Amino acid sequence: MSFLFGSRSSKTFKPKKNIPEGSHQYELLKHAEATLGSGNLRQAVMLPEGEDLNEWIAVNTVDFFNQINMLYGTITEFCTEASCSVMSAGPRYEYHWADGTNIKKPIKCSAPKYIDYLMTWVQDQLDDETLFPSKIGVPFPKNFMSVAKTILKRLFRVYAHIYHQHFDSVMQLQEEAHLNTSFKHFIFFVQEFNLIDRRELAPLQELIEKLGSKDR
């Protein structure tokens, strides 16, 4: 949640996606912020009683986009074509970009280029009222869950890249507590609703297990 970040992190990579004040989704976001403040993340990610699962996932997906946007915004000067010529998460995992419409065949590109493509693509999905309806009573489309899963799978890759390639910079900026809290919230959320395949989480498996065991 945005309250985790200090003023230095106000530089975002892409414009922040706002949830309209006064809307039901805004109320849900406020509920999420309040439960997060309690410190029990496992409980904070659970579907609030009587709420629609799609709407809960939509609100949280927007929030994770904003969080990652801020986190990546703090380290963009260290993530360059020269330092990160491929989009990787350690030596064993490399990502090639394709979005199925503009770029159909996966292309190898630098991390800053890949993350730019990725965040722009996510932004386009979030701004699409047919996919992420913000008005009360407008139903979510049948393919909403599969789109949300793809968004979260791709957002995970930004966390994985930051942890593997830029953790030193994060520590220099004293942002590691923000990064860890944000990632822990993200992981508990996707685990609660089974939103990302285990294989996709492999680049950060050790960290995920460590975060989970601390909470038992």
Automatic annotation (TrEMBL):
Keywords of the record: Metal-binding, Zinc
Domain of life per record: Eukaryota
Family annotation (Pfam families): Mob1_phocein (PF03637)
Keyword Phosphoprotein among UniProt keywords: no
SMART domains given in the database record: Mob1_phocein
Stretches assigned to coiled coil: none
SUPFAM superfamilies in the record: Mob1/phocein
List of residues binding Zn(2+): 79, 84, 161, 166
Protein name per Swiss-Prot or TrEMBL: MOB kinase activator 1A
Organism this protein belongs to: Pelusios castaneus
